[in-house]
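FORM 7B - TANDEM STRUCTURE REPORT

SECTION 1: FIRST PROTEIN
SEQUENCE AND TOKENS:
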Amino acid sequence: MIEFTTGMLFLLGTFYGDVTSASAEVLPKTPVPQEQALADQPLTLEEYVREYFKDTPIMAEIAKCESRFRHLGKSGKVLRGELTSDDLGVMQINEFYHEDTAKVLGIDLHTLDGNLAYAKWLYQKEGTVPWYSSSKCWQKERTLAQVNSSENSGALAKADIRIAKN
């Protein structure tokens, strides 16, 4: 695109003189703030799930293990479980056990937001027990996160000690 624009400016310049000063007025004089540029970009599903469960990060780790942060399958339909086809969506909520309750709550398990909302409700009611079958995966993720967190806090504490000594 830049090559095309440069070429067009050169071509117009040969016929009409210097056109770069006129076109410079169209461009913003100040750069777009990075926050605004980032805000204009859509979130990935992983980012969305992590933001949704920011108060309970273990739920994002469960989503990672259960569905690899996917809600739709290759067909474009809601993702079904590999071992149990009743498991549904990003949180792999089992329809057989949970669909009636979800309907009473007014939640559609087939939608991304409904799947996440029901998972949050279920977590508040039963903790991580409904996702026990994938616990080897998400407990490992939790342990790694705790180790990284404690290493970071340990490094910060050492930095604080060095600053205090100086």
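SECTION 2: SECOND PROTEIN
SEQUENCE AND TOKENS:
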Amino acid sequence: MSDGSLGSKDSTEPGELEALRSQIDDLDVQIVRLLNCRARLGLQAGRAKVRNGWPVADSEREREVLVRVATANDGPMPQDALLALYRQLIETIKQLEELEGIGSEGDTNG
């Protein structure tokens, strides 16, 4: 029954799918840039904390970030999935801080 095509119902769907995929590809590039920007800012914040003699780890700030993200979510991304992504982002920035030696006691936070 299938001819190996996209299973289109009319002749416009393959073009529409191509356009949607192009938009997704463009967004992926933007998301990668934004994630790297977010990581750089997290590293800078960690360095600023060290310079000021403040603890690098800040669980209250992490909670604030997660609440802000949850509040900003208007779907369709499920809340638990979005928060899992942000928790992973925070953990990744902590690992980057450790690699850079930010928080000499190994106590880091992005």
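SECTION 3: OBSERVATIONS ON SECOND PROTEIN
Residues 1-5, 106-110 have pLDDT under 50 and may be disordered.
Helices lie at 13-51, 59-72, 79-100.

SECTION 4: SIGNATURE
Preparer initials: ____
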